[in-house]
Amino acid sequence: MEGLKLQNFQGGKPFMLLPASSVLCRSSFRTRRECSLTISVGCREFVGFTIRKEREMQMTTKASVQPVTKEVVDDKSKDLTTSGDSIRRRFLEFYASRGHKILPSASLVPDDPTVLLTIAGMLQFKPVFLGKVPRQVARATTAQRCIRTNDVENVGRTARHHTFFEMLGNFSFGDYFKKEAIRWAWELTTIEFGLPADRLWVGVPVERIQRMGEDDNFWSSGPTGPCGPCSEIYYDFHPERGCTDTDLGDDTRFIEFYNLVFMQYNKKDDGSLEPLKQKNIDTGLGLERMARILQKVPNNYETDLIYPIIEKASKLANVSYFLANDQTKTQLKIIGDHLRAIVYLISDGVVPSNIGRGYVVRRLIRRAVRTGRLLGIKGDGRGNPEGAFLPEIAEKVIELSSQIHSDVKSRESRIIEELKREELRFVQTLERGEKLLEQMLADVVLKARENRILPCLAGRDAFLLYDTYGFPVEITMEVAEERGVKIDMNGFEVEMEHQKRQSQAAHNTVKLSVENDEEITDIISDTEFLGYETLAARAVVEGLLVNGKSVLQVSEGSDVEVLLNRTPFYAESGGQIGDNGLICTESGKKQKSVVEIKDVQKSPGNIFVHKGTIKEGVIEVGTEVNAAVDAKLRQRAKVHHTATHLLQAALKKVIGKETSQAGSLVAFDRLRFDFNFHRPLMEKELMEIEGLINGWIGDATLLQTKVMPLTEAKEAGAIAMFGEKYGEQVRVVEVPGVSMELCGGTHVSSTSEIRGFRIITEQGIASGIRRIEAVAGDAFIEYVNARDNHMRHLCSTLKVKAEEVTTRVETLLDELRVVRNEVSAAHAKAAVYKASMIASNAFPVGSSKKIRVLVECMDDTDADSLKSAAEYLIAALQDPAAVILGSSPGEGKVSLLAAFTPGVVDLGLQAGKFIGPIAKLCGGGGGGRPNFAQAGGRKPENLSNALAKAREDLVSIISEKTR
Fold first, then answer.
1. Most buried one in 61, 128, 644, 902, CB count within 10 A?
2. Cα torsion for 305, 381, 148, 289, to the nearest 10°?
3. pLDDT score for 131
4. Which residue, among 294, 336, 259, has the nearest Cα to 86 in the 3D structure?
5. Distance set, CA 154 to CA 99, 150, 162 (Å)
């Protein structure tokens, strides 16, 4: 084994130097007690070490020699170009020639509900690895688009960190395993791409020599799911530094470009590993990293995959990248990286919002906008100060996308419009927010110096910037870090949580405490919920609360909160409101008592609080009662809840699967569904959604409800609310073939019970958030009947048939417009007549230049007619002239107008600036152009004084100007 050297390096991590003799290491993580190290030298393979962990650590060695068939020969005619597109194609073709099916990249929006975005090449194959879905091919190879933002602060600062990158991978689904995967990886690296073997280092799991943690040589895509041991291949940019005290984590010398994962376990919720039914291979080669190596550039950003984007940004910033200082280069790299991520996210249907994936893209956009401003890019960078520059750079990203994702070009207009809208929206508040942040940081630094403490920005201030000015807290952290200031993130989270609590309706608050402040949850056990199976049950009163205080009995007429040991009443949660009904007692000689329940809430300790009024008798703690839910209202809630699930399914079909729930209300009279989307829905889209839902209702599909482990539910494809916390066991409600959601609410047994569905309104409620209100079931029938009654009355009034109403109304509107125009013309004519009568009241002002001035009240003349009168007077008085008119066209209304000829404007007087202060005297305001301005007010009683003030000021200013 000449030429092979094993030794430790800094931090106790091992490395293996591979000289030109083509040494290759293969790790084999058999069990937690046994593992082996396989090394190939040239075309010979040696199984060199086996380590077993018994009561006492023992090491045994065995050697076996197996020839390795060389399947690839060096073909001099091969395309050895090193462009990013060429590297991608050569990788895919290399594995295609070895029996792999080339599959397309999956969307950045994964089907896997356990992750927010596609973070690895293996994600689309996760169900196959787990044995949940039968394999379609035994071997596959892909170039997968990926997004990772967990270390976004390193983007641009290191040579290799990115938010968007491409992972080239080859996969085996129970076909080949370690031997072939390692051999082919070596052939690809040294023969296909021609990397010198003496530049390559392979990480050897320390477990093969001494025990090592899984952080270094074990890979998984998340806290649960497929996983296994792995080996990495590193490239050495500076072999002249030698082998002593070498650290593979040194980014200035090494880069890990290829990772081989031997996917043989499934990590469960408790962290334990269970063997997969079949052993799989999952490898990942970073395209940007290989491009950096082959193109011989100092970092990934200067490869042909990213640098053209940086070059475009440089031109807009009017700087040269290669002549720039390090800070400017970092800023240009940030834009180059983020624009790739932004374009591909929007292309895959992610729209900017304040939740989930939408927040990821919004954060990246705003980070790029701020970075561009730091570079000095104003407006669109091409002379339009009101324009947006991100769309300009995005065009270059789209131009480079043809070999990555061909659909991006077809979606160009949507991407550009979305970017433009989001950038301009952010710029509106960015400048104010930046000034406020700078002031905050300056105050914090000054205070810290005075008190000799470390500067720290309060969490409430960071939240103000986030909530009011749209600053992602990450941007605030970056700016603060640049000034040496930390942020109180705990305080920020407290403010965020406080806002969430405040946004809930007041009736959601449940006070559970007794006089001595002892929490009632400490003395009363959780309520047993029976409402899925029954609407009536016997129960025992375990507690009574009046105004939050614990009492033993409550009498007729009092409001009360009743705590039962078991209940059929549904407590408000998951958007569904609490049940209504009655709690009654009637036992022997005791007086009957009746409590009318109007709301049910759930305490943090899972105690159901029945809120109502005692209509009859007295209720006492310890009494046995009959608890009965109002069946008709419960049915209404069930109908609306199931309809909400159908609505979400329909939205995903019509406007895209990337849309997700942002809130909901399931009430007795309606349903409300909030979702993230960037524009109003078109009428045809709303009709399509209604059609889908009513079609599913007509299918009379039976619902299926199951309780299962959370991981199993997610693997089955159940939709979970992003950010919602769930227990280990969850309830899954499925409309087969249509919808599957994690839901604890009540639902119909068959979609036919819904009867009908109608959308009432669709509107925007926040940036990137839309809201639909709709009715179903009895509420749908009531809505249709009410609309029908209105139509009948309208038909009777207009004396036409229902199908003729639209035409008749349009005719009446046309007639009304004609009459209104005639009335307006008559008013204008009357105003002009009044103006002709008062024109003679104009008086000259000025010593060197006589200017005719007219300030008059025109009684009840409306604003439009006042304008006609002013135009007449200006023409009649001729230049130079100044006219001020006022009127009171109605109760509590004032109209004011200023009109100046060019001769007056040339003196420096502006109508807009002059009339504003006058309007304030009448409780209003206004403005306009230098020659013409209108204003209004709410205090007609001040009009005469305001006009007197206007006359006085006008005479004074003109006299001063014409001396």
1. 644
2. 20
3. 76
4. 294
5. 38, 9, 8
Instruction: Report helix, strand and coil shares of the chain as percent, to nearest 5.
Output: 40, 25, 35
- Two tokens, residue 705: 């409800």
Q: Write the CB contacts of 284 (distance below 8 Å, at least 6 apart in sequence).
A: 120, 121, 122, 167, 168, 169, 258, 259, 261
Q: What is the DSSP letter of 109?
A: S
Amino acid, res. 817: R
Helix (H, G, I), strand (E, B) or coil at 612: strand
Q: Give me 94's structure tokens.
A: 């290399």
Q: Is the pLDDT of residue 632 over 60?
A: yes
Residue in 718, 721, 722 with CA at minimum distance from that of residue 731 = 718
Q: Is 187 left (phi over 0), alpha (psi -120 to 50) or beta?
A: alpha
Which of the two residues, 499 and 911, has the higher pLDDT score? 911
Q: Which two tokens stand for residue 189?
A: 């690296």
Residue 432 burial (C-beta neighbours within 10 Å; 0-12, 13-18, 19+): exposed
Closest CA to 641 of 833, 536, 779, 459: 779
Compute the C-alpha angle 301/302/307, nearest 5°: 80
Q: Give residue 696's pLDDT band: very low, low, confident or very high (50, 70, 90).
A: very high
Residues 585, 625: contact at Cβ < 8 Å? yes
What is the distance between the alpha carbons of residues 383 and 209, in angstroms, rounded to a whole number?
A: 64
Q: What SS3 state is found at 354?
A: coil
Return mean pLDDT, the chain: 83
Say how far apart CA 95 and CA 101 lie, in whole Å. Answer: 8
Query: Under a CB-based contact definition with an 8 Å cutoff, are residues 639 and 753 in contact?
Result: yes
**Structure-token pair, residue 831:** 């105003």
* pLDDT tens digit sequence for 231-241: 889 999 999 98
Q: What would the pLDDT profile of 933-944 be if each residue is shown by its tens digit?
A: 999 899 999 999
Angle 22-25-27 from CA coordinates, rounded to 5°: 165
Whether the link from the prior residue into 880 is cis, omega within 30° of 0, is yes
Cα gap 700→642, rounded to integer Å: 13
* Pick from 230, 232, 233, 212: nearest CA to 221: 230
Q: Determine how β-strand 704-709 pairs with β-strand 624-629.
A: unpaired
Residue 376 CB coordination number (10 Å)? 13
Residues 6+ apart with CB under 8 A from 760: 670, 773, 774, 775, 783
- Our CA dihedral for 403, 409, 414, 419, rounded to 10 degrees, sits at 60
Is residue 367 a contact partner of residue 475, using CB atoms and an 8 Å limit?
yes
* Cα distances (angstroms) measured from residue 853 to each of 7, 382, 856, 873: 99, 47, 10, 10
Q: How far apart (Å, rounded) are the C-alpha atoms in residues 682 and 662?
A: 20
In this structure, are residues 41 and 64 in contact, taking their beta carbons and an 8 Å threshold? no
Could you report the per-residue pLDDT of 168-219, keeping only the tens digit for each?
999 999 999 999 999 999 999 999 999 999 899 886 544 433 333 455 555 5
CA max distance for the chain: 120
pLDDT digits (tens, 9 = 90+) for 451-490: 888 999 998 888 888 776 767 777 788 888 888 899 998 9
DSSP single-letter state for residue 944? H
What backbone phi and psi angles, to 5 degrees, belong to 78? Answer: -65, 145
Q: Are the C-beta atoms of residues 593 and 627 closer than 8 Å to each other?
A: no
Residue 349: predicted pLDDT: 84
Joined tokens for residue 294: 């082959």
SS3 state at 335:
helix
How many angstroms from the chain centroid is the CA of residue 718?
A: 20
The span from the CA of 153 to the CA of 475, in Å, is: 10
**Other Cβ atoms closer than 10 A to 806:** 10
Would you state the pLDDT for residue 962? 81
Residue 675 CB contacts under 8 Å (≥ 6 apart), including other chains: 648, 651, 659, 660, 661, 662, 769, 770, 771, 772
- What pLDDT was estimated at residue 721? 65
